[in-house]
């Protein structure tokens, strides 16, 4: 995505929720990172910033609840919004955003997270109702501000920075081995793109790829946790810096 605000996901039928993400340039200036999230329900609008949460224009302390919407801190970094609307949003205050919607929204969602209809062929449904084959055109259609510059195609960072390729491959292939492989049946790290995403992030990271590696692994571990698979990876000497 580019540097703008985008609709990640929304209830396109009954308008029960909308989740927006603001991107900014990452530290190397070439790629985009999450700056903030806005979670909109009929009863409350929540802005998640790095290190703080704002409701009604005022910063609030966590945990806090607003009529069926709970905002908590999970662990050291993750901000969690859970609701009676059947929507859950998790953000680690850096890169990883995870949106979970309940089955009541089948055939009712749209946005960058795609359609929730068990048909991957139309996940690139634009805000204008047309399905496109290009990720950039798809992403640009979900900008909330037409004055923002459109995102453009950029080379894969492992091509831009070939010197990082071997490091990315070596580190990200760890998702295929212990302690992570206990989850391979539930979340295949290759088929579901976690290895590729990890390599992309590590190559595109700044001078120290450790942060991006930790974030990529954290995303996979969180996906596994949603299937009830717990992975004790932070006790591994390789990841003490995470």
TrEMBL record:
This is Uncharacterized protein. Keywords: Disulfide bond, Glycoprotein. InterPro entries: Mucin_vWF_Thrombospondin_sf (IPR050780), VWF/SSPO/ZAN-like_Cys-rich_dom (IPR014853), VWF_type-D (IPR001846). Transmembrane segments: none annotated. It holds the Pfam family VWD. It comes from the Eukaryota. The lineage of its organism: Eukaryota, Metazoa, Cnidaria, Anthozoa, Octocorallia. The keyword Glycoprotein applies. It comes from Paramuricea clavata (Red gorgonian).
